[in-house]
Each structure stands twice: as C-alpha cells, then as structure tokens.
Write a structure and sequence with these properties.
Layout (H helix, E strand, L loop, with lengths): L2 H13 L4 H15 L4 E8 L4 E8 L3 H7 L2 H10 L8 E2 L11 H7 L6 E8 L5 E9 L7 H18 L2 H8 L7 E6 L4 E3 L14 H11 L4 E11 L2 E11 L7 E8 L9 H11 L4 H8 L3 H14 L5 H11 L16
Antiparallel strand pairs: 1-2, 1-5, 3-4, 4-5, 6-7, 6-10, 8-9, 9-10
Helix pairs in contact: 1-2, 1-6, 9-11, 9-12, 10-11
C-alpha cells in the first residue's frame, strides 16, 4: 500500500465513530504495520497534574505499559522537554543522558529497546494533548524521512485522540449554549474550546460545585436555572446543563454549559427558588424558614406554581421541575437560616 493510501487509511480511523480507545489502538496498528518500528505507546496528558494516561500501545508487555503510566514518566517527559510543540525528538537528541532516565535505564533498555522517537501531539491551534512514542530495538537513529512523515501525521493523530471531540459533540446537543467549561477530576475547570468563558463556570463557583455533586452521585445529566444580576433590582436567569464526560480519559469528568435568557413556564424568580427547595424535599414550613417568609406566603407561591407547572400535586410539580430544569437549587438562595 502506497503512502497516500496509508495516510487515507489513518484518516478513516480518525473520522470513525468508534470509541477513543478503539481509535487510538487503530491508529497505532496502522502505524505499526506501515512504519519500521518495534513498539508504540500513545498517551494523553492531564494538563493540570501533568500525568499521562495510556490510550493505546503495540509491541509492549503489560508490565511496561503499567510502568509508563507512572507519575515519574510524566516528570521525565517534562524534564526532557519533548512535550513541546516541536518536531519529533530521538533519544540521542535528549538534553539528558539516557542512563540518567529511569524509564530507559530500568524499563525500556532491559526490554530490548535502544532508540526511540517522541512525537508531541497538538491539534492545529490547540493545546498539548499527549505523546506518541515510537520505540526501536536498533541503535540507529530514526531517518529524516521518518521524522518528516511523523511531523505531518502528528496533527491528524492528535485529532483522532482528542477528548474535545466527544465533549464538543455533547455540547452541540444543548441548543443556545454560549459558554461552557470542562471539569477535571482533580477539581479544576477549564473553558470549553469554541464557547465563551463565564464567571459562573470557574472552579470555585457554586454552579460548578453543584455540577460536581451531581456527577459524583452518578447522574449523567442535570439541568437547572441560576440567577444573574443585570443591575440593581434586575434579575435574569440562565440555564445550566451538566453532562457526564463519555469516551474520554479518566481525568475528565464532565462539562457544564450555560444558556442565557431562558424562561421556564413564566415562573417568577421566587417561584423558581420555591421549586428548588421543593425538588430538594423541603416542606412548606422548611421553605418558609429558609426564605424568611410566612408559611401563608409559601402556600400562595405553591398555588401559583402548581398552575404554571400544570401539576395537581406538589410531588408532580417537583418531578416535572427536575425533569425540565425549571428550578433554582437552594444554594443560589439565601444561606441556611442557622448560618445567618
């Protein structure tokens, strides 16, 4: 098979609808059958902790793959600076002697590898994604032709294993979303590429806290309203949508999307708050205490929102509000009375 046909075959894997792990393994198998290599390793990087997660390999024993997933390997990649946006780097070109790198001295050389080529993966205009490593039993440096071939292939391979592919596909399902963030397992949050930043979608935002709690509880989807203040006495609401992260490395847990200027059944700000407390399982008396209003005021709100929710009972209203995302969670209201 000629080079053009091989590149086309790799492109087919990149655009296939299979899972990220299957795409990664498929890409490596294509490369392994085409390029003069003895083993390959493909790993994605968590940008916050600088740790790596293996998504595919060929020619490596399980024990070697387990070794490469160790934090020390990530530290060596950082030390040797091969994770920068640059052409592939061979072992002979590293700024650190190979016998000073435990990954080589303790693992790869005893396994029979003498030379390697590190290919940093960046999508066009995007952040660093991870590392493709090609390993050779020969000490002969990789040829210039092989390096050039990998330089041109690297953005295509990066596109095939980018977690953003799955996250953006999910985000597109939420019509009208203008801002979004990605939640990492370590507690950080990053803007979702292609959408705007928003002050409600930073790591210490109460919105993000609620989103994390929902995902930790095993929910794959949650939607709710959140108040925004456009000026003195002016309150608008945005819709917050929380989605679990599917088909991504384990260091990503989900996305949070924000849709502005949303209305829910004509409900007022106070009725959205009451519904949030109702969804949370509070009684009328507890709602009155929380909001510092009289129980009869809560009863009046309840009467109005039952009509708007087209629900004959408060239970059905709560179920419908949770399903439609027509409520403001309690943490957006006043603090608990006992904490005031």
């Amino acid at each position: 098979m000629g080079e053009d046909a091989q590149v086309a075959a790799i492109g087919e894997v990149v655009t296939s609808g299979v899972s990220l792990m299957e795409r990664a393994q498929g890409l490596l198998e294509r490369l392994d059958g085409w390029l003069p290599v003895d083993a390959t390793w493909l790993a994605l990087c968590d940008p916050e902790s600088n740790s790596y997660t293996t998504v595919g390999s060929t020619g490596l024993d399980r024990s070697i793959v387990d070794y490469l997933d160790r934090p020390a390997v990530a530290q060596e990649i950082q030390l040797t600076e091969i994770g920068q946006n640059r052409p592939p780097v061979s072992v002979a070109e590293l700024p650190v002697a190979v016998d000073e790198l435990p990954t080589w001295a303790e693992c790869l050389i005893p396994a029979g590898f003498r030379e390697g080529l590190g290919v940093p993966l960046f999508e066009h205009g995007g952040p660093y994604l991870g590392m493709l490593s090609l390993l050779f039993s020969s000490e002969q440096p990789p040829s210039a032709a092989l390096r050039d071939r990998l330089t041109h292939l690297a953005p295509l391979i990066a596109r095939g294993v980018s977690p953003m592919r799955s996250l953006l596909a999910s985000a597109r399902l939420v019509q009208g979303a203008t801002a979004g963030c990605i939640l990492h397992r370590d507690g950080t949050a990053y803007p979702l590429p292609g959408l705007e930043d928003h002050s409600l979608l930073v790591a210490d935002s109460p919105v993000v806290t609620i989103a994390r709690e929902a995902l930790s509880a095993g929910l794959v989807y949650q939607s709710f309203m959140w108040p925004t203040h456009d000026g003195p006495g002016l309150t608008d609401h945005v819709r917050i949508t929380v989605l679990v992260a599917a088909d991504v490395p384990p260091f990503l847990v989900g996305t949070v999307l924000l849709t502005p200027h949303v209305r829910c059944r004509g409900l007022t700000s106070r009725e959205l708050e009451v519904l949030g407390l109702l969804v949370d399982g509070r009684s009328n008396q507890q709602i009155a205490t929380w909001l510092s209003v009289a129980p009869r005021t809560v009863a009046a709100h309840m009467e109005h929102l039952l009509v708007k929710m087209e629900a004959p009972t408060r239970t059905l209203a709560a179920v419908r509000a949770a399903r439609e995302g027509c409520y403001v969670p309690p943490s957006a209201s006043l603090d608990e009375p006992e904490r005031r």
